Amino acid sequence: MQAAGFPKFRMHDHTQLWKQLDAKNPGKGSGCIGDYGNWVWFDRWIDQMRQHCEAEGEKFR
After folding, report:
1. Of 20, 25, 29, 41, which has the highest C-beta tally within 10 A?
2. Domain map (residue ranges) of the chain
């Protein structure tokens, strides 16, 4: 998100967002556990994060 123009969006903000939206719930379609046991986010989640950052106005810019 920082490269997309939201330099103030940090890992903590990401963690708070996915917890708030329950984005690691497999039924949400935001990602899954990958080959090595790590969580992998889908493009759908990236789009949701971008929309969230845009909706927050200058908070993350």
Report:
1. 41
2. 1-12+36-61
